[in-house]
């Protein structure tokens, strides 16, 4: 598991509605129907679209998903446990790619701030 995501799980252990209806999974979510559905959606998307993982990365694991739509957040597993992994936002195909979990988290803060500004 990516070290930044593992550290996030130790401190926050998930985050409901990190962006609108997209939740980041916590450790309690890994054995739920929502997580199983996210894994199935990843398999379906991988059958339809080629998703670049990068050298040394294997399968995609879901780290978050929308409660009402097809948005899913994934990270490729690395054979080197200390190696940072990108966060990939999928919704039928690749929507956005963040170089690291920290970049993703900062991106979600920026998205939420932009939404709040547009409502003001």
Overview of this protein structure:
This protein is α+β, with helices and mostly antiparallel strands and 120 residues long. Helices cover 37% and strands 28% of the residues. It contains three helices and six strands, in the order αββαββββα. It has a six-stranded antiparallel sheet. A hairpin with an 8-residue loop joins β4 (72-78) and β5. The longest helix is centred in the C-terminal third of the chain and has 19 residues, at 101-119. It is globular and about 45 Å long. The termini are far apart. The mean pLDDT is 90.
Proportion of helical residues: 25-40%
Number of helices: 3
- Which strand order spans the largest sheet, edge to edge or round the barrel? 1-2-3-4-5-6
Average residue-wise pLDDT: 90
Major sheet, described briefly? 6 strands, antiparallel
Low-confidence stretches: none
Sequence of secondary-structure elements: HEEHEEEEH
- Roughly how many Å is the radius of gyration? 14 Å
Shape designation: globular
Roughly how many Å apart are the termini?
A: 39 Å
The overall strand count is: 6
The proportion of strand residues reads: 25-35%
State the secondary-structure class. alpha+beta
In brief:
With about 120 residues, this protein is of the alpha+beta class. About 35% of the residues lie in helices and about 30% in strands.
Give the arrangement of secondary structure elements.
Elements: H1 3-11, E1 15-19, E2 22-24, H2 33-48, E3 57-66, E4 72-78, E5 87-90, E6 94-98, H3 101-119
Antiparallel strand pairs: 1-2, 2-3, 3-4, 4-5, 5-6
């Amino acid at each position: 598991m990516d070290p930044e995501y593992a550290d996030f799980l130790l401190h926050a252990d998930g985050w409901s509605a990190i962006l609108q209806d997209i939740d980041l999974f916590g450790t309690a979510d890994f054995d739920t129907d929502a997580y199983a559905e996210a894994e199935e959606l990843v398999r379906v998307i991988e059958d339809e679209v080629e998703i670049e993982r990068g050298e040394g990365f294997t399968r995609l694991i879901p780290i978050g998903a929308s409660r009402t739509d097809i948005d899913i957040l994934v990270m490729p597993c690395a054979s080197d446990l200390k190696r940072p992994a990108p966060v990939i936002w999928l919704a039928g195909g690749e929507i956005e790619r963040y170089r690291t979990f920290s970049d993703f988290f900062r991106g979600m803060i920026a998205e939420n701030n932009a939404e709040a500004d547009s409502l003001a």
